[in-house]
Amino acid sequence: MPIPIAGIAGDQQSALFGQMCTNPGMLKNTYGTGGFLVLNTGEQPIASKNNLLTTIAWKVDGKITYALEGSIFIAGAVVQWLRDGLGIIKSSEEVEKLATSVDDNGGVYLVPAFAGLGAPHWDQFARGSISGLTRGTTAGHIARAALEAIAFQTVDVLKAMESDSGIKVTELRVDGGATANNLLMQFQADLLGIPIVRPKISETTALGVAYLAGLAVGYWNGHDDISNQWEIDKKFEPNMSSIQREELLSNWNNAVGRSKNWLKGKVN
Hints:
This protein is α+β, with helices and mostly antiparallel strands. Helix content is 36%, strand content 19%. The protein is globular, with a radius of gyration of 19 Å.
């Protein structure tokens, strides 16, 4: 018996649907080797002025939903570098314990521009840097700075999305392997000043295309029918003062500025 192909979607668009971000202003981030933010912008495409991608999220029942997408080159891959490059951890799971061995980053900022910087910078000449090192810097500080870099890069993209869309995001739904790291998720909530919502099912890319196929063949009756199945595993509420947040972001921007254009004039 033939099997119909009822749903086709790009991986990040599928993850957006799998997170049930079906209304304008809803946003998800996938924390994988890289990071991929997608914001539902509704029925009208928005041309980005901040180096983001304007894309079709999905087409259901003849109705097109548009989105803005921003890609971060190095997210979970920075933890792999700590393991395989520096050798300060033996497995990726160890990074959270090492990072929590210190109270804060100790003034250390790691910009993982190992292959340049993605959205919203798009600087192919940028290279990785570690700033703020002192004699008191430990492996714990570097591990914490590496995790924090994932969150800082997410802020950069999200702020660009808010600027392009005029939408103030009220929560971020997250998926991908790195979301198991509670330290990272809490720091992300603190930096953004909004709740971070981790679902019970984190494989939302596969889930989203299954939802789309189910809608197409009538297995589900509509978005509300599917939304009732989406469940929260944990919500991380922000718990950081605006003064501390602004100081951290200012230091991050300073570190990024030092990493940018590193190879400019050195490439033939």
